[in-house]
Automatic annotation (TrEMBL):
Organism: Solanum commersonii
Protein name: Reverse transcriptase
Organism phylogeny: Eukaryota, Viridiplantae, Streptophyta, Embryophyta, Tracheophyta
PANTHER family with a match to the protein in the record: ENDONUCLEASE_EXONUCLEASE_PHOSPHATASE DOMAIN-CONTAINING PROTEIN (PTHR46238:SF8), REVERSE TRANSCRIPTASE DOMAIN-CONTAINING PROTEIN (PTHR46238)
Length: 134
């Protein structure tokens, strides 16, 4: 929704690419990465976010994939880092907060979460946040 609201500004050809990149970093990317610190992100999620971001940036520059311009060149023109790098930074920043917290707080919080008699689902177990950080 934020992209749609801002597309009038971001797709205007009169506005310089660097200014569009700054607007993208301030408005669009934070909404895309909201709460990402706690997501148990899979590679498929990362790939979808990367594709969505590149589509938006190409659209801002007025290029299509058929123009055959490399992603790095377009990113450099706009001045935007990869969403994958920002996702990793946010996750590690949150990990530092959790690591500084005392170990007793985690044990006390998780005591009530054990539920007996629950059935397991089929297939591979879901990744939890600790596995993603590792």
């Amino acid at each position: 929704m934020k992209w749609r609201l801002a597309s009038g500004v971001l797709c205007d050809k009169k506005i310089p690419h660097r200014l569009k990149g700054k607007f993208y970093r301030v408005v669009v990317r934070p909404t895309l990465l909201y709460g990402v610190e706690c997501w148990p992100v899979k590679n498929a999620h990362v790939q979808k976010m990367h594709v969505a971001e590149m589509r938006m940036i190409r659209w801002m520059c007025g290029h299509t994939r058929s123009d055959k311009i490399r992603n790095e060149v377009i990113r450099e023109k706009v001045g935007v880092a990869s969403v994958v790098d920002k996702l990793r930074e946010a996750r590690l920043r949150w990990f530092e907060h959790v690591k500084r917290r005392c170990a007793d707080a985690l044990v006390r919080r998780c005591e009530g979460l054990v539920v007996e008699g629950t059935r397991r689902g089929r297939g591979r177990p879901k990744k939890y946040w600790g596995e993603v950080i590792r």
